Amino acid sequence: MPDYVAKAVADPARQADAVNDDRRKIAQLVAFSQVKPGDKVLELIPGSGYFTRVFSAVVGPGGHVYALWPDEYAREDADGLSASRTLAADAHYANVSVLTQPAAKLGAPEPVDVVFTSQNYHDYPDPFMGKVDLLAFDRQVFAALKPGGVFVVIDHVAPAGSGLRDTDTLHRIDPAIVKKQVEAAGFVFDGESAVLRNPADPHTVKVFDKSIRGHTDQFVYRFRKPKG
Questions:
Q1: Which end of the chain, C or N, has fewer beta carbons within 10 A?
Q2: Cα separation of 62 and 113, whole Å?
Q3: Non-local CB neighbours of 121 within 8 Å, separated by 6+ positions
Q4: pTM of the predicted protein model
């Protein structure tokens, strides 16, 4: 565990988040994402800012975190967008800025080292997001990254072979289709983490079901943009 990750997780400014750290494996996931001091991070659909706060502390004053809210998602979660803007206005998070743009037109103000999405990749092809073409989306992520940069995808596991069938109903996605699509965009698979896997999850219930909420089986994939 890099010292800068441990220090970022221990930041007193995120004390309210700490109750979820063991369950959500924040330190392990940030270390797996390979974010380091000075990096530029593009975080997709940052929710409450749980990861944003740690990324901000890791990259420090020499780095930057772009919290990206697709317009379509922001219409469904105005409170989340407002929370990101409040966070970015806090002097403690001076290296955070908020981006809003159409879901189908992903971009960053500058080349970034890491693109990160947790529990939201499955949302992009859904009707409320405009049925974004995921291969085109992955190519936009590829274009936003520096050569050698990484794309980290965390999401809820759907049954093997189900493809995109359950994205809008159960809010799950088949890991195999994610890997296939991201690699088709030019990425190289660079590893996975099992810290969020849960074999007790049947994969057939909605992720918000009280029997599994907060403890779904999740895959954690890292893809790399080749340097050449």
A1: C
A2: 13
A3: 134, 153, 155, 173, 178
A4: 0.97
